[in-house]
Design goal:
By secondary structure, the chain is an alpha+beta fold. The protein folds into two domains: 81 residues, Beta-grasp domain (Ubiquitin-like (UB roll)); 68 residues, DNA polymerase, domain 1 (Orthogonal Bundle), CATH 1.10.150. 30% of the residues lie in helices and 17% in strands. It is elongated. The relative contact order is 0.15.
């Protein structure tokens, strides 16, 4: 972040933190025992889902300083100075990201609960590796539990997204 971050301020029983969310600098008031997922949802970022609350399902995944992270395990105050990308920062209904389009086109979305975490994981993979093997795709999606499918359609979606995103 270009703005110099100094220290966390305590204000009215909350910590005031400054971070970038989806490219925009935000000041959030967070409780000392609050996790990043809860703070994000309280501030309107509802795309990251609250699934297991133990870091096992992946539905709360965000990009935290460029890497996938489980926001249900990150103390909110530790996000001070961080860059966070939520599913809302990946694409919109009006302008979906190619990964989001591919998940719809491949029929990979059923109930949709796991999809934000899967898309975050897929984005991290495809940003680093535009032509991943099926094994690599499965490895990157591994931390995302889906109770609706056998993961076949999600793997197909990532392969399709990789094709869409490659400059041919």
């Amino acid at each position: 972040m270009k703005k110099e971050i100094t220290e966390i301020k305590a204000v009215d029983g909350y910590f005031e933190i400054c971070l970038k969310i989806n490219g925009l600098t935000k000041n959030l008031k967070v409780k000392n025992n609050e996790f990043l997922l809860d703070a994000l949802r309280r501030y309107g970022y509802k795309g990251a889902k609250k699934g297991c609350d133990t870091g096992d399902c992946g539905s709360c995944a965000v990009l935290f300083n460029g890497r996938p992270a489980l926001s249900c395990l990150i103390p909110a105050f530790s996000a001070h100075g961080a860059e966070v990308t939520t599913i809302e920062g990946v694409g919109t209904v009006q302008a979906p990201h190619p990964i989001q389009e591919a998940f719809v086109q491949a029929g990979a979305v059923q109930c949709g609960y796991c999809i934000p975490g899967m898309i975050i994981s897929a984005k991290h993979l495809l940003d680093a590796n535009p032509a991943p093997s099926e094994g690599k795709i499965r490895k990157y999606l591994d931390g995302n539990l889906c109770r609706c499918t056998g993961y076949v359609k999600q793997v197909e979606a990532v392969k399709l997204a990789a094709k869409k995103m490659r400059p041919d």
